[in-house]
């Protein structure tokens, strides 16, 4: 990977000399330290009591470090006992704790700390969430890292009981619900993030996967989860290693906490660095998508807009897409020209939407490998790309290729094609108007002609991703409808998310389309059964295409063509995220609407809650014909 160094900090329960701790941690290879904002045992009283009149500072001076050091090397920790007291029924105790926590939050802003952390140990958190959220939306510089255990201590203890059933004493606790309640009360504020505390015994993978959809900024690794190898060095179990690697992919930082159980703290950091370096991936998709994780992009509209040279260049580098196209073209050519006719027969192959010619080159290469004769037409509406095609015709292709500068729907072909090849697919299959284009072009395909692709199907699944929801929520534009940002599909490399159910097929288009009346409008309702308690923030869209026979392309999670990066998934947001319980059905209705000028999608959730239709009449987003 481009950057394989893990960002790691060390937690001090208390600090005597701050500079000494920083030097010690730096020598051990750590990037930052986590320390209390105020001494845990320093009594402060703001409502009444002897300490109320005490003079002097409540914590150490900001002059101990430079501003840049406070800004980058220190993560502050709030007084945990007062966090717990925020939910106390005793008003005096609660109000005093509110004053103390506010005092620490204000001082943390004064220091310019990058992050503040505290532990959430119960689902009774309404007052904690209110206080933290109110302070955050006032405009603080730091992030809030809410420390939540992967498993509650009671749940860990229950693993040693013979009776594992739910009980009133809290032996079946889902800590995700603690976090979800807190985050929801805080309106999913983007500055409030998750610090996941890893437990010695990991839960089932589906429980871990649900956490992977949350905004994890940090993972706390207690020294109690580490094992000792034969040489006396700290190591992690295979399951913990896999979890660390997953967290690293989400760009999480790590904090080592707890008493030293091995020779030196530096050994923990060195081991984390080691397992991260060992996981380097050579997957072209991962390499290509780096930096684009969860980055919202408007879908391309190549029919309405002429693509730029750089865009063509990026997609032409795909190592999988054009290889699959070449296989499909090769099979189609052989089927059209039997072995006994290869010396006498020549077929016509048309590439519609030829771009800068990658499919033309693959067609010529396929014909050469099959030792068959073909005549190629390269049809392209973008006049700039036609320049590139004509240059290649003059320099390389010669009379074997005819370049046509025209919209395929308007072209009057001099002859009919045996094979029609196109690459008009979008992230949702039909969202770049491949059906409309190919329906218009099929008039110059012979009755027994072959279309590549022959069919494609869009797929949907519900997604959990507070991060993506926040990205959409903060992308509102002043001159557009108030709901426009939630009614626009986005192309996005889905990263910090969780699929809540297997994908299901939505719309299918086949070519050539021999229907007497061609109608590309579609409607379908899908039902997804949810396996665990969660929140739906939107729907992920994918496609699967059959190029020819058994040659396929797919960006569907279950069948993704490994290494292909030409398409990222498409995201359909929901305006109001809604909670779902295990076993519930999520029902969503989807429409593909068309007029003579535009195509657009509308969608609506009707279970377990009933929502309004998104993008009615294409008010926020349309695709131009």
Walk me through this protein's architecture.
The chain has 625 residues and is of the alpha/beta class. It folds into 3 domains: 8-157 and 169-280, TIM Barrel; 309-423, 3-Layer(aba) Sandwich (Rossmann fold); 455-624, Hnrnp arginine n-methyltransferase1. 28% of the residues lie in helices and 26% in strands. It is built from 17 helices and 26 strands. Strands 1-2-3-4-5-6-7-10 form an 8-stranded parallel β-barrel, surrounded by 5 helices. Strands 16, 17, 18, 19, 21, 22 and 23 form a 7-stranded antiparallel beta sheet that branches. Strands 13-12-11-14-15 form a 5-stranded parallel beta sheet, with helices on one face. Helix 1 links the parallel strand 1 and strand 2. It is elongated and about 105 Å long. The two termini are 41 Å apart. The model is unreliable at 162-171 (pLDDT under 50).
